[in-house]
TrEMBL record:
Residues 30-84 form the HTH cro/C1-type domain. It comes from the Bacteria. InterPro entries: Cro/C1-type_HTH, Lambda_DNA-bd_dom_sf, MLTR_LBD. It comes from Amycolatopsis plumensis. PROSITE patterns: HTH_CROC1 (PS50943). Coiled coil: none annotated. This is Helix-turn-helix domain-containing protein.
Length: 279
């Protein structure tokens, strides 16, 4: 089972090992380095903490670094903005709203998803459970209403659905991006049992487990996917994820054809009649 303490330890180790001492202007050492990246004492010096403190953090010995220490470690390890936010979440140093995850669509957002037609669109919560979708999304991917409620999850469909998972032309990139989103969601909601269960199930997949161990967290709100559609052939779709200010636990994903051929192919697909919401 993954825990914030264990993940913080592993994340610090992997980010330390990825750094090249020469890029940080550190002096050359006479003794050859037995492991890649920085030594713990070098990270400690750069962050202004003791080497023993870094050792205990990397061993997962239950420490909870302060916000100042997290900021110092982020600078020392040259973390990206997404990685820095992830480290703050792992250390419990970002305030979280204590609310139950949304399990039903906000009615106005469900109507928005329907009104976005003819663009494929769906509404999700923070763990990517699909709460609403329109006919175009059903035609592009699948009608989530045909799945059991426990399987109406965009990440599960992309990573584990027996047909959809093989439809991506660049599946490794899709898995890598999905992992970044799941890892970021888990760091912000580490006590969500449903999210932990989803991650545990995905870890049974060999490719997922291999990429999960790399601890990438560069989640993005936009991107593109190329799919082999059984009826329309190869389709390229750009997507954007929007977070409503009034309902930040829900997010709207909107797809757009990436080229004219994909636009023509998508417009020719029959739209199944869907309820537009999970339930």
């Amino acid at each position: 089972m993954i825990t914030p303490t264990g993940e913080l330890a592993a994340f610090l180790r992997t980010r330390r090992e990825r750094l090249d001492p020469r890029d940080l202007g550190l002096p050359a050492r006479r003794q050859a380095r037995r492991t890649p990246g920085l030594r713990r004492e070098e990270v400690a010096e750069l962050a202004g903490v003791s080497t023993d403190y870094v050792v205990r953090l990397e061993q997962g010995r239950g420490l909870r670094p302060s916000a100042d220490v997290v900021a110092a470690l982020s600078r020392a390890l040259r973390l990206s903005p997404a990685e820095r936010a992830y480290l703050f979440d792992l250390a419990g140093q970002r305030p979280r709203a204590v609310t139950e995850p949304a399990t039903t669509a906000v009615p106005s957002l469900a109507r928005l998803v329907a009104d976005l037609s003819p663009l494929p669109a769906m509404l999700m919560n923070h763990r990517y459970d699909v709460l609403a979708w329109n006919g175009e999304m059903a035609a592009l991917l699948l009608d989530f209403g045909t799945l059991p409620a426990s399987r109406r999850n965009a990440m599960w469909v992309c990573l584990r659905h027996p047909e959809i998972r093989e439809s991506y032309v660049d599946r490794e990139r899709v898995v890598r991006e999905g992992i970044a989103h799941l890892r970021t969601a888990w760091a912000a909601h580490p006590e969500d049992p449903a999210l932990l269960g989803l991650i545990a199930e995905c870890l049974r997949d060999e490719d997922f487990a291999r990429l999960w161990a790399e601890r990438d967290v560069e989640a993005t709100g936009r991107g593109s996917k190329v799919l082999r559609h059984p009826a329309a052939g190869v389709l390229a779709v750009d997507f954007e994820v929007l977070l409503p200010l009034g309902d930040t636990d829900q997010r709207v994903l909107i797809g757009r054809p990436a080229d004219e051929a994909s636009r023509t192919a998508l417009s020719s697909l029959p739209r199944p009649v869907v309820s537009g919401k999970a339930g």
